[in-house]
Design brief:
mainly beta, 2 strands, elongated, single chain, about 15% strand, two-stranded antiparallel sheet
Length: about 40
């Protein structure tokens, strides 16, 4: 199990996910930030 000692330790670690299906045929890499995991949005 992963855990943090402080909520401060989680700041700046919002994961990025590559969008594959919606960007099919587009050159370049398109990423989306998954803000659901951001402690400030809960």
């Amino acid at each position: 199990m992963n855990y943090y000692n402080s909520i401060i330790d989680t700041i700046g670690n919002t994961p990025l996910v590559k969008l594959n299906k919606v960007t099919k045929g587009i050159r370049g890499t398109i990423l989306a930030k998954v803000e659901y995991f951001n402690p400030g949005t809960r």
